[in-house]
Design brief:
heterodimer, A: 375 residues, mainly beta, Methylamine Dehydrogenase, Chain H, 4-stranded antiparallel beta sheet, 1 helix, globular, B: 158 residues, alpha+beta, Ubiquitin-like (UB roll), 6-stranded mixed beta sheet
Chain lengths: 375, 158
């Protein structure tokens, strides 16, 4: 059994490391790392015989970069030459690193990065240097992708697991794309995801959806769960088709016409049960806070057929919280723990699969991402 | 052009920039402390240049000598970062000819982080700074902010 949990927490003004015992009762906070800088992406890569921390950092003044540490964050390396940068012929400049995803165990040294403007980069040396994945950058759809509220970002990278050449990426607002050949070619995978911002009859486009987050269980790589700007969806065929599963969840107003619900950013699949999934509904894109001032995590144990609100230990009055797309995560312990951070600087934890919660950190800067690992 | 520290040793021969050898000039570069840390701690540098040199050429040489400074001042497409200001004397190059602004012998180029604030989203923030030792004229700052906002376009939502 693992000794505990290490939670990496990115914020708009630095990164923190929370360490918890196996019961998730005793929590300590270390940091900040990169004080004053935005940290939108964090990862721990335990392959290649080392524990490498990777951080996507952004200085308001001096721009973005990726740093890494092989000593638990005591020292960080950010080389003089940028680890990640757009080639000159693209005319693009890196704005932010939204996602860092180490490759599979059968891909030593491979690390992927999703960035803004929407693009995928690949490293073969553990994240020290990256190369643009041209197959996606040259995709004919790219010119028609539009930025969401956070910018035109590639924020989700999901490895297939069963097939090392297959992966998905999600772009806001471009939709979900899948490659089956290691990134050479990509196909949109958004069939059935409704886009109410388009006229009726044209609101099921091939691409252009504002996908907020996608997750799936390694034991069932064909099943994906997706939180869209409008609604929560499930696919049982690797993203080929999607069905809405979120209509029973709350919103700030009754459903209008066929607009799916709920609005929200993250979606998290239970680490040990591919049928259990969690979301945190927000009022709407006009409010972007927990509905009715009550913080509720919603759990489905039947892959989205039914949902239950989880509230024990969460503030239920005057709680206008926002949880961003990467600020909700499950830890791998048994029973599974859940962690989410808010834009008001709190971190909430559950040691019992969401049945009860506790605020384990407050007064942090706005939380942008959390990542959980065994300690 | 070659970048060098002040007071080169006797007998030091300054290399030419882009093959220019006639009438060399010296441009003084002053770095903000955070950038100076990445330039071996030197906040004041001198750049030897040929006639007709520009701010862009000075920044090229700075980046060649100190890549960690170069990528913090300009992005990978060569644009000066939004919240970094480059002054020639007392004038922001955004009010001159940008990186095409000519620099001559004795010119001082200051590279400073802007006084940027107003939100976590950099695109929403204002951008003000002034060379070392200069008093910021408040009215001029407001004018600069207004002009900067115009140049920067509409801030995006978050």
């Amino acid at each position: 059994m693992a000794d505990g949990v290490m939670l990496l927490v990115g914020t708009t003004k630095g990164a923190f490391v929370l360490r918890a015992d196996a019961g998730r009762r005793e929590v300590t906070i270390e940091g900040p790392h990169f004080p004053g800088e935005e940290v939108y992406s964090l990862a721990l890569d335990r392959r290649d015989g080392r524990d490498r921390l990777l951080a996507g950092r952004l200085s308001m003044h001096f721009g973005p970069g990726i740093g890494w540490s092989d000593d638990g964050g005591v020292t960080w390396t950010d080389p003089p030459e940028a680890a990640i940068a757009f080639p000159a012929d693209t005319g693009a400049s890196l704005a932010r690193v939204w996602q860092i995803q180490p490759g599979g165990d059968d891909q030593p040294g491979v690390v992927y990065a999703g960035v803004e403007p929407a693009a995928l980069f690949r490293s073969a040396d553990g994240g020290e240097t990256f190369t643009l994945v041209r197959g996606l950058w040259d995709h004919p759809h790219r010119a028609q992708w539009e930025p969401g509220g956070g910018g035109l970002c590639l924020h989700t990278i999901l490895l297939d697991g069963a097939d090392p050449a297959a992966m998905w990426v999600a772009i806001s607002s471009g939709g979900l794309y899948r490659t089956a050949d290691g990134g050479e070619t990509w196909e949109a995978r958004n069939q059935g995801i409704r886009t109410p911002f388009l006229p009726e009859g044209e609101d099921l486009p091939e691409f252009g959806q504002c996908v907020h987050k996608v997750d799936r269980h390694p034991a069932r790589p064909e099943r994906l769960f997706l939180q869209h700007h409008w609604g929560t969806y499930r696919s049982d065929d690797r993203g080929d088709t999607w069905v809405s599963i979120g209509e029973s969840m709350p919103a700030d107003a009754p459903p209008v016409g066929s607009v799916p619900r709920p609005f929200g950013f993250p979606v998290v699949v239970h680490p040990h049960d591919p049928d259990t999934v969690y979301v945190i509904p927000l009022g709407s894109d006009m409010q972007r806070w927990t509905v009715d001032g009550a913080c509720r995590v919603y759990r489905s144990r039947d892959a989205g057929g039914t949902w239950e609100a989880l509230t024990e230990g969460l503030p239920q009055e005057h709680a206008y919280l926002t949880v961003l797309r990467d600020a909700f995560v499950a830890d791998p312990l048994e029973p599974a723990g859940l962690w989410f951070g808010t834009r008001t600087g709190e971190v909430f934890a559950s040691a019992d699969e969401g049945d009860s919660w506790r605020c384990v950190a407050r007064h942090l800067p706005p939380v942008t991402c959390v990542r959980a690992y065994t300690a | 052009m070659a970048l060098r520290r002040p007071a080169p040793p006797a007998g030091h021969v300054r290399a030419g920039l882009h093959g220019l050898t006639a009438a060399p000039v010296t441009v003084r570069v002053r770095l903000a402390p955070l950038l100076a840390e990445l330039a071996d701690g030197d906040a004041r540098l001198e750049v030897g240049a040929g006639p007709g040199t520009t701010v862009g050429a000075v920044l090229d040489e700075l980046a060649a000598r100190f890549p960690a400074v170069g990528r913090r001042v300009r992005d990978e497409q060569g644009a000066v970062r939004r919240h970094v200001n480059v002054f020639v004397g007392m004038d922001n190059i955004r009010d001159l000819d940008g990186q095409d602004t000519p620099v001559g012998d004795g010119t001082e180029v200051s590279i400073l982080p802007a006084i940027s604030g107003g939100g976590a989203d950099a695109a929403r923030s204002t951008s003000i700074s002034a060379p070392y030792g200069a008093e910021i004229d408040v009215q001029r700052c407001f004018v600069s902010v207004r002009a900067w906002r115009t140049r920067s376009g509409t801030p995006r939502g978050g």
